[in-house]
UniProtKB/TrEMBL annotation:
Gene3D superfamilies: LON domain-like
Top-level taxon of the source organism: Bacteria
PANTHER family: ATP-DEPENDENT PROTEASE LA (LON) DOMAIN PROTEIN
Protein name: Lon N-terminal domain-containing protein
Lon N-terminal domain mapped to chain residues: 17-213
One Pfam assignment: LON_substr_bdg
């Protein structure tokens, strides 16, 4: 397989992938996620992904509601997103600085018993076959409401944004980037990940942000730093 292979459907992806459990991390198809890799087990994971040629890493959140705080292998949520290493740099002190580009979400079929220091899962991409079609469902997104809520959020938290970039972004890129950058916790991030379509993801993002703004108004919480 060429290292720049195009993935056009679930059958193009391997059934078994390494997984990187990371709380609060949300990767979505065609989204970019920067990672700073320094733990030995994950350095080994990156080395193996590069050696095998597929350059694929499954991002998935630990399910803290079903795991003890001391568990070495916390329970994983059932849905994650596989990404391909599209940028890689060595830090000079043993770390990797890399960027993953999301390919498709997956459901965990089973976690495998492996000898590698990192975890591996057998996964199924077919429930998310629409992930392979760029910009699918864009026309159904309520962009006007999304931008209005974004404006309120920025004002409430004294934040600024590149409005030229926002206004020129297609709906898929806008919704997914805002979802990935959102400051919410693992349950909200998982809901955004598992949304059945782009319209629903935008609606969840709007609802969660409106609830957060309402809570700040009633509690007098300080803005995000």
């Amino acid at each position: 397989m060429p290292i720049n292979a195009a993935y056009r459907g679930p059958a193009d992806l391997p059934e078994v992938i390494p997984v990187f459990p990371l709380p609060g991390a949300l990767l979505l198809p065609r989204g970019q996620m920067p990672l700073n890799i320094f733990e030995p087990r994950y350095l080994a994971m990156i080395d193996d992904a590069l050696r095998d040629g597929h350059r694929l890493i499954g991002m998935i959140q630990p399910d803290s509601a079903h795991s003890s705080e001391t568990a070495e292998k916390p329970t994983l949520f059932n849905v994650g997103c596989v990404g391909r290493i599209t940028q890689l740099a060595e830090s000079g002190d043993g770390r990797y600085i890399l960027e993953l580009t999301g390919v498709s979400r997956f459901k965990v079929v089973e976690e495998l018993q492996v000898l590698t220091p990192y975890r591996q899962c057998k996964v199924d991409y077919f429930p998310f076959v629409d992930d392979f079609t760029a910009r699918k469902g864009e026309d159904e997104v309520d962009r006007e409401t999304l931008l209005a809520v974004l404006t309120d959020f920025l004002k409430a938290n004294n934040l600024k944004v590149d409005w030229d970039g926002v206004e020129s972004a297609p709906n898929e890129a806008l919704v997914n980037a805002l979802a990935m950058m959102s400051p919410y916790g693992p349950p909200e991030k998982q809901a955004l990940l598992e949304a059945p379509d782009l319209k629903t993801r935008a609606e969840i993002l709007i609802a969660v942000t409106e609830m957060d703004l309402a809570k700040k108004r009633t509690s007098g919480d300080p803005p995000l730093q």
